[in-house]
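Good morning C.,

I know you're traveling, so I'll keep this short. The sequence:
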Amino acid sequence: MMLVNRADAARAGVLLILAILLPLTVFSAPKTYRIDLPTRTLTPADDGGQWLAQRTDSGASTIVLQFRDHPADNVKRGLSQAGVQLQEYIGGGAWVAYLQPGVESSVFDNLDLRWAGPMLPEDKVNHRVAANDMPSWAVTPDGNLYAVVMMKNVPESEAEALIYEAGGEPGALISVLNT
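The tokens, ready to paste straight into the viewer:
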């Protein structure tokens, strides 16, 4: 038989309670759903992605999809097969997604979707470029040197044409593998 005084028993009880509760608080810590885009910050309410059902444009578009939890690989594959390409994770449970023309809102019905909304043109521009606040290293004797990043679904030839159309001259184009 082991003799334990009350103070030691109380400390052991407190330690046992902490050992049980600490993992629960770590795993159930509130998740932040804040989305930081280059020119604005979104803290959308959880509406289950209602905007998708109200969307009237059935053409190709770039949108933001926010999930309650990160989508599993089989969900990503299912979205891809349905014409929804998750382009880039942008934090807060959100992804930039490209919808091919004709994607029906029913594609999103059984997902753990928290919020969805349009990707505005200004969301695609770096905040320093939008404010014309280029760092000194980006200024060349001929003007400003910009790094242009296209969405993964834009073919290289189209990216080059868009750069020329905007008055730029594409330098070395770097292809990024879609992994």
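Safe travels,
E.
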